Amino acid sequence: MYLLTPYKITYDTQKYPFKKIVSEMMEFKKLEYLHLLQHYDLLVREKDQSTIWHKRYYEKFKTDFLPTYLELVKELKERFGYDEIIYQTIPTFRVQLAEGNLGVGEWHKDRTYNHRTTEVNFWMPFVNTNQSNTIWMESKEDKGDYRAYEVKYGDILVFSGANLYHGNKPNESNETRVSVDFRLVDPNKFIPNEAGSINMKVKFDIGGYFEKI
Ligand SMILES: [Fe+2]
User: Fold this and answer.
1) Of 1, 120, 197, 202, which has the maximum CB count within 10 A?
2) Burial of 44 (C-beta count, 10 Å sphere; 0-12/13-18/19+)
3) What is the Å distance from ligand 1's center to 183 Cα?
4) What is the whole-number distance in angstroms between the Cα of residue 31 and the centre of ligand 1?
5) How far is the CA of 40 from the centre of ligand 1 (A)?
6) What is d(CA 32, CA 53) in angstroms, rounded to the nearest whole number?
7) How many CB atoms lie within 10 A of CB 96?
8) What are the residues facing 166 on neighbouring strands?
9) Residue 161, CB half-sphere, CA atoms under 13 Å: how many?
10) Do 180 and 95 contact (CB within 8 A), yes or no?
11) 213 residues of the chain, pLDDT tens digit each
């Protein structure tokens, strides 16, 4: 699971039909066109979790998203050869609206936000992303060679978000990007943190931001 440079894995979208699930949660068929429903001015750090679509996702998370997510986590645990794995309880929802908006308001390393360097990030879009609406990242810590990682629906980008600078550029394409990202941690490398998540307002520990399966 731990590699220095970002890489992609695939999953079965028949078995884990997240696009359909998320479309139903949003009450809108074409996730690429969510920006047509409601306009938002440029979302800054404090506002990038505040759209009506975030509200719909977090309200329906337990009933609509969680069961399939747990199945995927179990599969990943087996694929990476762990008996137990620690996973992010609620994947973070992101929307990067077309018409020049951002999905995350700031370029950063996750460790600036109290994340441990042993956490591994999984970035999973529900649309086919393009250069303009996807995540940008350096390939090695502080190398500064930023590039767009285009990820298709059915693929997951795996990377070390605590160590690599990442962010996004204004989405100048005509398609909105909808994604979630979550973290998996090897239980042997897990270090709880009394400090917590600024978005979720829970501690970085099992029973809070994380669970073990
Ligand atoms: Fe991040």
Assistant:
1) 120
2) exposed
3) 10
4) 22
5) 21
6) 13
7) 29
8) 108, 137
9) 22
10) no
11) 766 799 999 999 999 999 999 999 999 999 999 999 988 888 888 888 889 999 999 999 999 999 999 999 999 999 999 999 999 999 999 999 998 999 888 899 999 999 999 999 999 999 999 999 999 999 999 999 999 999 999 999 999 999 999 999 999 999 999 999 999 999 999 999 988 877 777 899 999 999 999
Residue 97 has what DSSP assignment? -
* pLDDT on residue 199: 75
The rounded distance, in Å, linking the Cα atoms of 57 and 25 is: 6
| Strand-pair category, 7-10 with 147-149 | unpaired
199, two tokens: 């978005």
For ligand 1, the distance from its centroid to the CA atom of residue 94, given in whole angstroms, is 11
Considering only CA atoms, which of 133, 188, 142 is closest in space to residue 162? 142
| DSSP codes joined into one string, 139-160 | SSTTT---EEE---TTEEEEE-
What is the C-alpha to C-alpha distance for residues 63 and 190, in angstroms, rounded to an integer?
A: 28
The pLDDT score that the predictor gives to residue 2 is: 66
Take residue 16 and report the two structure tokens written for it: 């884990």
Distance 161 CA to ligand 1 centre (A): 6
